[in-house]
Amino acid sequence: MELIAQRQQWVVEAGTLKQDRQAVRAPDRVEKVIDKVRALADEAGASPEVVERTYRAMIAAFIDLELTVHEGSRGV
């Protein structure tokens, strides 16, 4: 929980700094993260599919939060 809470703090801060919704979504960056965690999962003997699904869910939740913060900081 502590690591998720720390990540949330960084996401909230980033949401105030990003220029637009596309910068928040950063689909190319998401795919790089997914590629990396799949490789790490494979090395660790974990299911790359389960790890990918877990990370995609976590990333989606943080993107939603960041978009809310981003739009709020812009007065949208």
> Mean pLDDT score, rounded?
95
Shape: elongated
Overall CATH architecture? Up-down Bundle
Beta-strand proportion: under 5%
Number of domains: 1
Kindly report the oligomeric state of this protein.
single chain
CATH superfamily: Chorismate mutase
Question: Uncertain spans, ≥5 residues at pLDDT below 50?
Answer: none
Structural class: mainly alpha
What share of residues is helical? over 70%
Annotated CATH topology:
Chorismate Mutase Domain, subunit A
Task: Give a verbal description of the structure.
By secondary structure, this protein is mostly helical. The chain has one domain: Chorismate mutase (Chorismate Mutase Domain, subunit A, Up-down Bundle), CATH 1.20.59. Helices cover 86% and strands 0% of the residues. Helix 1 packs across helix 4 and helix 3 packs antiparallel against helix 4.
Write the topology of this structure:
Elements (H helix, E strand, L loop, with lengths): L1 H16 L3 H5 L1 H18 L3 H26 L3
Tags for this model:
single chain, mainly alpha, Chorismate Mutase Domain, subunit A
Quick rundown:
86% of the residues lie in helices and 0% in strands. The chain is an all-alpha fold and 76 residues long.
